Protein: ATP-dependent RNA helicase
Organism: Penicillium hordei
Amino acid sequence: MMLGTARRFGVSHALRATAPRSISARLATQLPKWQAPSTLSSLAATRSLHSSFPRLSAATAEATVEETEPSKSAMITEFSDLAAENLIHNKIIKNIIQPDRMNLKTMTEVQSLTLNEIVKGDDILAQAKTGTGKTLAFLVPTLQNILNDPSVDVSKVGRRSARTGPSEIRALIISPTRELAEQIAVEAKKVAFGTGLIVQTAVGGTQKRAGLAKIQQEGCHLLIGTPGRLKDILSDPWTGVSAPKLNTLILDEADRLLDQGFAPDVEEIQSLLPDPTKLDRQTLMFSATVPREVMQMVRQTLKPDFKHVNTVREDEVPTHHRVPQKLVYTRGLENSLPALLELAQNWQARRDNGEDLRPFKAIAYFNSTAETKISADAFNNMARNSQFRQSSMGNMRMLEINSRLTQALRTRSADNFRKAREGILFSSDVTARGMDFPDVTHVVQIGVPRDRETYIHRLGRTARAGKEGEGWLFMHRAEQDVYRKRLGRLPLTLDTALETADADLSQTFSNDTSVGKIVNQVTEGLAQCDGATKVKSYMGQLGTTTGNFDSKREAIQALNQMFTVGYNMQTPPELSPRLMQQLGLNRIDGVSMGDGTRQRRDGGFSRGGSRGGFSRGGDRGDRGGFSRGSDRSGFSRGGERGERSGFSRGGERGERSGFSRGGDRGGFSRGGDRGSFTRGGDRGDRGDRPSRPRRAFDESFGNDSFRF
Ligand SMILES: Nc1ncnc2c1ncn2[C@@H]1O[C@H](COP(=O)(O)OP(=O)(O)OP(=O)(O)O)[C@@H](O)[C@H]1O
């Protein structure tokens, strides 16, 4: 019997390995090379929190902090040594280390510090920086624990006569987003290859029946899913999928799953699992961020003696020191896209000049889905231009991902971006957590994100597994207050090198200057976007912008300017009286009240040739430039759509869905300054069964809140 088996399914504590108290010095020499030096010092602060609070305790005081006495596996840093220690099955180790398989050698800090504890069966809260291998940290010991379970018969696998049933689930992993659940499953299948263990997924947006049939036919030991779909299938007796033998529950991105958006679903899933007083259950929580607000929920969910493995020192910023983080002020909201293009072009130009840089591969994060879409559309339009194609930007893929795309399109975008050598992924917070896209060189956040955690997780899409990366935040000066409140202590430095960020875009630009070229390209790209997309983008940004800006008047002015100057439209959309009231815009200059009839009547309020869009750029005037874009967009179309899915509806429904946006703590806000409705931006798994008010709200404003 393997040591692990004895630990979890028998004499666990007698075999507990011990280690010298001063671990930092020893570990320092054995740390994986790719870990940042900062983690060396953080080891000294690795702690074990033994909460004295009983389960379901409402107490909020801090748990006692003790020096960690890492157990034997904490001393092991090479995966291959786990076999010698008889901790992990040979097949699993081979899958991890073989060059033709995962090809990994050295364990990361979080992997090495949690492995033995998990094999022993302890409850764990593990906090480690983004991209430091948390997925394998919970997968490897969890799969090992299933193998250790004497009641699991892997020899049944594949034999028709004695199939593993759908009720053989031993471990359940909950992920806040579909893409992340799928990604974890891919990793789990790699680790479990050849062991006989069966890994299945249950994620929203996919065909429920097909997924169920697969689980029923093939059986399942480890199920990975999103909250809504898991709740659906576990609560429906007709699915035949249950988990009466479940031993392990894992919450990946735990803080997200425990916040108000997801917590009810997660609680309900737990209520569908075996009673933990009758069947012992281990619960594992992993995340790069564990804000104080969720600690109470953590304590309520984990056993009182849970271990807190924290590789991020308390006085340390939980972002990687090797990621330069730059702050760029934009003159107007309309300057962000030119600044993004300039950033990409500058980088590619440096590569052309022989600098040893990886190809530009960026994720641009937006606070609203509609903005994601218009930006992706504009860049795709640009990328079709022959000049662009022949430039150093020519091979870039321009991809979009947000919850309003079908799951098939989302998956395709994610796959394409994974494979892309260079490109930009225009993303909502669907990809902000956990997604492991290789070789992302830049993360660009447009507008101050809704909270610090979101900033950290988005930034964490770059500089993963020891690689380099850069973080950029483009923000309007009027967001300064909210920036200070949410991100004030993060190490961003001001960067003024991007000329287009500060250019006055109401001017006409000649293509003779580099700024002019960039601005004209973006203008051309936007000109080809249809009017409905522009209105939706305006509406989608209303909530966050009025919430983020120091004053609502400034926010409306900035949005109107973006609409007229950036999108070359004539008059900003009308807002319904109710929406105005909800946003606190009643006495604000520049807001036009109405029901959208003007948009419908005018059949599109493009400013047409007045500013000239790309015809102004000169090289494409022959195509009719802007006017063509405008005609095509048929603002009548925009008007209709606006009416159907835009603001008027938003105005009606917003109030029902926590759109007390104007206030600081509207709706699902978690904290003082976080009240924006984009709060649930990476909310997963609602797509298949949305609650009506939330969905209506979301559709109205083009946000990813509460969707997936
Ligand atoms: N021991 C290791 N050595 C080298 N690379 C590793 C190791 N473990 C994991 N990785 C790789 O590091 C990358 C990041 O891992 P993972 O996605 O698990 O990070 P994470 O800590 O979960 O990040 P996030 O907080 O963003 O979810 C992956 O590409 C993974 O394959």
Q: What stands out?
A: The chain has 30 helices and 18 strands. Residues 104, 106-108, 111, 128, 130-136, 288, 434, 436, 460, 464-465 surround adenosine-5'-triphosphate (CB under 6 Å). Confidence is low (pLDDT under 50) at residues 1-7, 10-74, 607-708.
